[in-house]
Amino acid sequence: EKLELRLLRGLPGSGKSTLAQTLGLVHLEADQFFVNEEGAYCFDGTLLSSAHQWCQLQCEFHLYHGRSVVVANTFVKQWEMDAYRKIAQKYDAVLEIDVCKGTFKSTHNVPENVIKRMKKEWEA
Predict the structure, then answer these.
(1) Which of 41, 61, 66, 72 is the most exposed place for a label (fewest CB within 10 A)?
(2) Long-range contacts (CB closer than 8 Å, 24 or more residues apart) made by 84-90
């Protein structure tokens, strides 16, 4: 059975996390880095690059152990997916990239001005 790595990209509130939870794969996202033991989301922008490194390492850990993974991050820029493209190659996993385009409320209370900026910078 071939390993699968699915990347779900989209603006905050587009339905990435919701879709990821329905796929039956190990569900990862950088935002999980900011959830404490009590389940509260405590975002710290200064740790964003650490959160993304953590997410990539978790992804590699699960693929290494033979578990297919879905990663739900905004991935506004194409290069932001490069690390995952390399990980998929390394573990000979089928890479699938989906764009979520729903319009829901962001579960992480991302400010409207940040979402607008992401929309402007989006790379198809």
Answers:
(1) 66
(2) 84/5, 84/7, 84/56, 84/59, 87/5, 87/56, 87/59, 87/60, 87/63, 88/5, 88/63, 90/60, 90/63
pLDDT at site 75: 97
Q: Using CA atoms, how far apart are residues 20 and 10, in angstroms rounded to an integer? A: 12
The residue among 53, 64, 52, 82 whose CA lies nearest residue 26 is 64
Regarding pTM above 0.85, the answer is yes
Q: What's the DSSP call for residue 32? A: G
Structure-block tokens of residue 95: 């890479």
Residues whose CB is less than 8 angstroms from the CB of residue 83 and which lie 6 or more positions away in sequence, other chains included: 56
**Which helix (H) or strand (E) covers residue 39, if one does?**
none
